[in-house]
Amino acid sequence: METLGKIFGSASKVRIMRLFLFNPQLVFDLGSISKKTKTLLTTAKKEVSNLERTGLIKRKSFVKDYLTRGKLLKKRVPGWVLDEKFPFLAHLQNFLIEITGAQQAEIVHKIKKIGPIKLLVVSGVFIPEREGRVDLLIVADKVKKNTIEAIVSDIESEIGKELKYSVFETSDFMYRIGVCDKLIRDILDYPHRKMINKLELV
Questions:
Q1: Domain for residue 47, yes or no?
Q2: Which of 20, 63, 82, 120 is the most exposed place for a label (fewest CB within 10 A)?
Q3: Domain ends where: 51, 71, 101?
């Protein structure tokens, strides 16, 4: 992320670019951009303005739900969406996808913070085959839900995409392997990388 920040101007800009590039059909308002990329609102406003001027994103208002005093209200708000006519879009997407794959060591370092990992499999967004049942498969014992959620949220803010992930206790995972559980097979039978493999799966 530090290297990309030097190339593109700031780490915040890279996070915001990824948010739009990995979610090409979605419209985001300033608050959502700030929250999803964990960027200060003032910084997000500045970078969004810069990206709009380059033509990478364009304005698009949308209706947003608000909960006020127990009532669900709808309000049209200004937002931005990826401009799919941007001339260098494919090149930029491919570049940032490749960089995301190169960040796998950094991802492993973050995931290790949840405790002793028996198995860590990356797929989906982290490899050239972008579509997959999950992006992360984690096998670890006595994992605290709020800890893993915080770590995944941090990774999501850098990558710019909501991650699909599954966490299993060792005994549950080994049982699923034994009965050829469909979810596990859908992950392990398709393109993936085992970043930690203390279970010695082949």
A1: yes
A2: 63
A3: 101
Alpha carbon distance 61, 64 (integer Å): 9
| Domain match, 117 and 165 both | yes
Residue 117 CB contacts under 8 Å (≥ 6 apart), including other chains:
111, 138, 139, 140, 196, 198
Residues 26 and 89 in one domain: yes
In angstroms, rounded to a whole number, what is the distance separating the alpha carbons of residues 74 and 172?
Answer: 43
85, 29, 36: which is closest to 62 by C-alpha? 29
Nearest Cα neighbor of 36 from 49, 23, 55, 53 is 23
> Residues 138-176: pLDDT tens digits?
999 988 889 999 999 999 988 888 899 999 999 999 999
Q: What letter represents residue 89's amino acid?
A: L
The CA R_g of the chain, rounded to the nearest whole Å, is: 19
